[in-house]
Amino acid sequence: MAFGAWLPFSPLASSLGLIHLPALYWPLLLLTLLAYAGLTQTVKVWLLWKKWI
User: Fold this and answer.
1) What is d(CA 34, CA 41) in angstroms, rounded to the nearest whole number?
2) Which of 8, 25, 30, 44 pairs as cysteine with 18 (C-beta 3.0–4.6 A)?
3) Would you write out the chain's pLDDT as a tens digit for each of its 53 residues?
4) Is 16 within 8 Å of 7 (Cβ atoms)?
5) Contact, 8 vs 21, CB < 8 A?
């Protein structure tokens, strides 16, 4: 994942046709990852509480 994030900033970017991502991309990515982790943790706790897993 780190390699994929670095690739648009690398010397290979122009030959691969890659451009820099907008600055708003990184906070939105972080927010999405945190929301996903929080949601999965909440569902896991709820399933354990119901004794379904």
Assistant:
1) 11
2) 8
3) 899 889 999 999 999 999 988 999 999 999 999 999 999 999 999 999 999 98
4) yes
5) yes
In degrees, rounded to 5, the angle at the alpha carbon of residue 12 between the alpha carbons of residues 6 and 15 is 135
What residue spans define the domains of the chain? 22-53
For 2-9, the CB contacts below 8 A with 24+ separation are none
Is 7 in contact with 18 (CB distance < 8 Å)? yes
Q: What is the DSSP letter of 53?
A: -
List CB contacts of 13: < 8 A, sequence separation 6 or more: 7, 19
Token pair 């690739």 is found at 7
What contacts 7, CB < 8 A, 6 or more positions away? 13, 16, 18
pTM here is 0.70
